[in-house]
Structures are given as structure tokens and as C-alpha cells.
Design brief:
Strand content: 25-35%
Helix content: 25-40%
Number of strands: 39
Number of helices: 20
Bound molecules: flavin-adenine dinucleotide
Length: about 850
Amino acid sequence: MKSHYKAVVIGGGVVGCSVLYHLARAGWTDIVLIERSELTSGSSWHAAGGFHTLNGDPNVAKLQAYTVQLYKELEEVSGQSCSLHLTGGVMLADSPERMDFLRLAHAKGRYLGMDTELITPSEAKAMFPLMDESHFVGAMWDPVEGHLDPSGTTIAYSKAAKKLGAEIVLRNPVKELTQEPDGTWNVVTEQGVAKCEHVVNCGGLWAREIGRMVGVELPVLAMEHMYLLTEPMPEVEAFNKETGREMIGVLDFKGEIYTRQERNGILLGTYEKACKPWSPVNTPWDFGHELLAPDLDRIAPSLEIGFKHFPGIANAGIKQVINGPFTFAPDGNPLVGPVQGLTNFWVACGVMAGFSQGGGVGLALSNWMVNGDPGFDVWGMDVARWGEWASLRYTNAKVRENYSRRFSIRFPNEELPAARPAQTTPLYDTMVGQNAVMGDSWGLETPLWFAPKGTEPKDIVSFHRSNDFEHIGNEVRKTRESVGVTEIANFAKYEVSGTGSEDFLNRLMTNKMPKKGRIVLTPMLNELGRLIGDFTIAKTGDEKFMIWGSSAAQKYHMRWFEKHLPKDGSVRIHRFDQTLVGLSIAGPNSQKLLQKLVDVDVSSKAFRFMDFREMAVGGAPCLVNRITYTGDLGYEIWMQPAYQRLVYRAIKEAGEEFGIVDFGMRALLSMRLEKNFPTWFRELRPIYGPFEGAMDRFIKMEKNDFVGREAAAKEQQDGPKLRRVSLVVDAADADVMGDEPIWAKVNGKDFGTVGKTHDFGAPRFDKSGKEVRGSSAATGASAVRGLHDGEWSVVGWVTSGGYAHYVGKSMAQGYVPAELADDESAGLFEIEILGHRRKARINIEPPFDPAGEKMRG
Ligand SMILES: Cc1cc2nc3c(=O)[nH]c(=O)nc-3n(C[C@H](O)[C@H](O)[C@H](O)COP(=O)(O)OP(=O)(O)OC[C@H]3O[C@@H](n4cnc5c(N)ncnc54)[C@H](O)[C@@H]3O)c2cc1C
């Protein structure tokens, strides 16, 4: 080991080795991987080695597709076989709801360019004769599934990295991490100290402990996981002989089971409900190449269903049961990226599917370290998506919930109960007392909608319109016709102050900063000219600004702000989180209502649209913005938590004469839809440029040289390829949920905006067992089955939507090729909802108050 490196990667599992390889491939060769024992001394060696591309988050799915693509290159570079078996696989649906879930996944796969297909149980049986098809209603076939050798693959990454110049040091535990005032890290190991600029925590089972070395409690927990291997089975051997191919992988949601062929028997694993954390507080450092004691009783309920569903396996002898630990984050996706509050401390951990995700994780992290940007939208696995509330106990409860629900359907209106309530505002009991159905908004309990008195405040979970529909409609109508009040504590709030504050914000934001007492809306871009933020900013003092943004992005944005703070101390930034809470009043009577509560003139002349004032509301000192996300006349009122009940009561009492209504987040989101307003992380994400996102009027090219200006100028000059649009959908009893494909009648024209993720040219089989090497599989999007249908083609995707109650229309927002974005003609678009293609029409002007007269008052 040398005394200095550019970067030190801690941990030689599949993830650490992939990070090392990708860093070396990106040109950083002064790097070392330090492993406490031998390579694969954590969870990597005993993995079942399965891989697939499907993921609830399309951006994570893309990185999984990249991982699968990479194996061929890896074998070539390293000269080491990964023992790749690309068998394809099916997911089996046992109920209509599960079939709806598969329809959604299949539809989403279309715009990602995945070649999935919905098939019958009999078709599935033809590929996997060990099953009894009578238990199932349908299935989805995915040709890009298979399995590999976990140790061989990890070693392939390490060999490839070494060939490119990286170093690997084995049998050398990292004991301590300290940082010099100049930012240099000291990696204290058993074999001495290595100094470096960057440290990467790829500690797998010990990632939590390595985090603690720098004072960070990472939300990651290891769970026990079991799979069994059968004795050789004559049925498997006969199938191989007859068809000349291996059996496919099968996922049975009902049984919480996955299976695949292993040699001439079957491997069968479960995600059992009665799951068990391993080492919930401290991972023992002396745990090595070990397995845990099998506990068949725990997985017996799953096995019972499995043996019923797969009678061919029931009679096979069990050769071995593997029980090993591996780690999960609370939502089951990896934790990747720089840790906010530290410099050059990176993580790539909580990777629960290292052989599906390890390549994508390595690529994203190496891009981020080398180029300052991951190069993709990695929000779904960004370590910044968790706040301080994701404590050890929170993580323990959520990971158990996530593991036990791994094969359960998550409905779009479903709120999961574990570890709640985590954070509450002073109004929590009041809202619950008013029959609010509460939701989790970045760890904060937030009213979603209000159930009528005497009924249970509970969502009936569904892919279709549900029991909240009528009540959200009432909340919207009463607000739009008189006045409503809602909690908005779940926004992010920051204060930027100091002599350099205006210059700092002008450098980061695309819009010009407002005059004192005024508000602007502004996107924020990265150097690549991609959207990384969307804020409301008020100038509150001579050298002081308030910023409001997305609550879920607080750590993500703080990380960016801190990175760009001038070193001279001329700018300070403070994140309020829940030390500042808020209420919004909206609707035509909101001005009259506010006037009753304050002692200053709030007429539209004295307190204009987009004005900011400090004023006492109901006697409490508040910050008030003359703006609302409902797009109506309205206000956002911000106060310290100690005043929230006072202000709320004052609003309710004064609002009585107007018939004031409480409305929840869902009504707010419904109202923003009929105004064509976008949301952060749905419509606006780091994969889109500002002109693609239709944010043109907030991009002030003429002002100073803001971050991303050059790239934005290029996008403007070349013209965006995609464009965000709002559509009115001819929906039946289900509205869009997000990620549905948008079809257009374009006579087969390929705009090059969808697909192209699966072009890895490896041999693969169609569902009849025919090899399709180099045919549709290798030629990209246009050849992907299901992207074209006669004159119709998939041209875009939905980002979000729902029912716009006031205008009485089902609405969607999404991205389509720019050249179609101004075409409002009927009959051009269709959106696929739960397997049915519904007519949709672009709506350029918002259907509610298109001229914006109401909000201007
Ligand atoms: C039974 C089972 C079946 C599985 N099946 C699959 C599957 O089919 N498909 C799939 O994709 N995934 C599967 N997995 C999950 C997969 O194993 C993990 O996703 C993967 O191993 C994570 O790799 P990692 O590199 O993050 O962590 P690990 O493999 O745990 O590697 C971490 C490494 O860091 C080293 N380390 C830790 N602390 C230090 C220190 N202080 N100093 C130096 N070195 C240190 C450790 O010794 C270890 O080698 C399965 C897991 C289990 C247990």
C-alpha cells in the first residue's frame, strides 16, 4: 500500500470492485481498494446470482439494464468468465390486481425500450413445466433476466480494474477515518495510513460501521435471507434435453418466491413475511465467509404455497439451505453519492441486488467523482433522499416492512405504516381529530384528505379511483368557490444571508433575483444544463433571501448549496426544516379572510401577486407570500411551530363566515394539475433541460453567467428534443399514476426519444425458446416489440397526473417529442392506463383560469 492516493475504496464486494473498475475506466488510476479480508468477504460470495432489469423507478431500471449490458465487456477486459446465463424469466400473477400491476410494469417497459410481453399461464408453463398454471391468471415475460457466478463476477471487476492500473490491498481492515483541515482523508488501516482526496464507503454488511467512523448513521440494515437448492431433478434434465435450453427464472408474488435452474436442480428463494434483521445495531467485525443457521420454519408459509404452485419442485430433495445476510435501505434501493455535510466522503452501499445494480452504481458514482455529476438521474438511489429522521430504529422498522413486502403490490394511493409518525407538526392531533387521512411526506405527517365525520379515515388502496375521490372533489370545489386552508409544513425552507447572498443566488439560479419584498420562481441547473431544482425565492431583507423548495430534496439541495458557497464567508445558508411551518389559504375569499386577521392593508394594490411581507397574522409573527400552488388567489403563511395552532385557529374562526374548508395534499395536487403546474421530481428532474421542461420564461440568458448557462444556451439554440406537456385524458375509472407510455399516431416515425436501453447483443431467447441473438434484441428501440402498432408508436411518457376536480377532467403531464408538443388536435395521442389505451389531447392553456386573472386578484 502506498502512502497517498487520489481515492480509497473501502470494501471488496461486488460493489466496491465495480466502483474501482469504473473509476479506473474513467481515468483515475491512482486509486486503491482496501479489503479487510479476501474479496467477497461480505454478502457477495453467497448470493443467488440472479439479475433482472425491472425496478419500480425507471431510472434505476435503466442502470440495471446497463449492469446487465456490462458483463460482456467485463469478461472481455478481465479475461474472467462471469458464467452468464441469460435465460429470460416470467413474473406470475395470481389475481386481477397483480395482473394490473404487471400491465403497468409492461407499459412502463415500453418507453424504456424493454421487450417484455404479457402472456397466459399456459404459455408460462410451456417454459417452466414445474408449475401448476391453474393458480395464476397471467404472467409477464422478460427476456433480459438470468443468473451468473457471484464470486467470478466480483473477481472479473477486480481483475479488470487492476488491468487498468488500480491497486487492491487484501487482509487489511480499515480501522479509522480522520480528515485534515485541508480536506485530506487519513485512512487508518492495520497496515498503516493511506492519505487520499476521496474515500468511498463500499463496506456492504459493515457500511453502517464505516459511516460511524465519520459520525454518520447511514440508513442501512442487513436482513437474513434464505434460498434452497434441490437435489438433481429428472424433470429439469428432461426439459434441458428436450428443448436444448435451460429453464427460465420464475417469480411468484403470491408465494414470495423466486426460482431458477441451478445445475440440474432448482434454486428457490423467498422474501418471507416473518423476516429477521441480522445484527440490528452492530455488525461483528469477525464475521467472515460464514453462513447463518437455516430456519425453515420461518419460510414454511412461503414454501407451502410454493410447493402448491410448483408441484414439480415439491417432491425434490433439498440438498442445501443457504441463509446469509445482506443489506437494505428503508426503500430497498441503494445509497449512492456524496454525503451532505462532509467533503469527498462517498457511499455506495445498501445495494440489495448487487448483480443487477452493481454496474450502474459503479458507473454513476465514478461519473460523479470524476466529472462532478452522476450523468444520469440517480435520485432513486441518492443517499441524500433520507433525512435526519431515518435513524437506526426508523431504518430497522422500514427495512423489515420493505423486505416483507418485497413481492407485495404498492398501490399508488397506499401509505405504508411502519415507523410512523416520525415527525409531526403542532397541528397533528387537530388534523387527526378532524378525520384527516395522513400521509408521509419526507418523514413528516401531512394531511392527504379529510374523511367525513363518522367514517374511518382510511384509503381503500387501488389502481382505480377510490374512496377519496368524492371528498377531494368537495375540498377542491369549496376552495375554488370560497376559501380553503391546508398545511404546507412539508415544503423545504432555507434562508440565505450575507453580503454575497445576491451574487451567490444569481450564480446558482436561472432567474434574476427579486427586489426587496418581491418573489420570483426559478429553476436551478447543473453544469450540464439539466434541471436540479425549482424554487420560490423572496428577497426578505437587504442581504437576505428566503427560499422554498421540495421537502424531499432538502439534503440534495443543501449538498449543492454548500458545494458552491464562497470560501470567504460572505454567504450563510440556514435550512429550517420543521423549525418553520406553514399554512396556505386559497380561493376567492382568501383575501377577505386574511384582511380580517391582519392590521395592514392586504388589498391587491397594497399586497400584490408575488409580493412578500412580514406581518402578524392572528397576532402571530409570520412571513406571508402572496402566491399559492393552487393557482388561485391565495397566500402562503409561514410561522414558528409555537404559533401554528394560534394562526390555524384564527384562520378557521375568521373563515367560518365564508364556509372555509380544510383541504389536503391531494386536493392541492389536483388543483395544480388544472393550472398545468409541474412538480419537482416528477415533471422536473435532472434528466430534463429547462426548455424541455417548458420553463423558458424563468431562464434569463441575458443575466450573469449562471451555472449551466452555456448548456442551456445550446439547448435553446438546437431546440429541445422533448417537451413537457399537459394532456386531457379520456380516462374511465382510473387516472394516470405516472410512467405510462404516451402513444401517438405518427405512422411509424421514430423520434429517437424512447427505448434503446437493451442493446447489449448477448444471446437471449424468445419465449418459445428460439435464440434471438443479434436480431430484435440487439438493434435497439425501433425493434422492441410493443413500441409500434400500425400507425401508432410510443413517443413519450407520463410523469404524473390524476383527476382535476374543478374542471372535471382527467389530466396528465409528461414528455413528448418537441415537434408534437404544440399539436392540440384530437386523435393524435393515446395514453396506456392499466392495459387500455385512452385518447388524450394536449392542452396548452391551463383549463382553470388560463389568463391567471384569479391569482392576480
Ligand atoms: C442469500 C443471498 C442471496 C442473494 N441473491 C442475490 C441475487 O440473486 N442477485 C443479486 O443481485 N443479489 C443477491 N444478493 C445480494 C448481494 O449479495 C448483495 O447485493 C451484494 O453482495 C452487495 O455487495 P457489496 O459489495 O455492497 O457488499 P459486501 O459483499 O458485503 O462487501 C463488502 C466488503 O467490504 C469489506 N469491508 C467491510 N468493512 C471493511 C473495513 N473496515 N475495511 C476493509 N474492508 C471492509 C468486507 O469484508 C466485504 O468484503 C443475495 C444475498 C444473499 C445473502
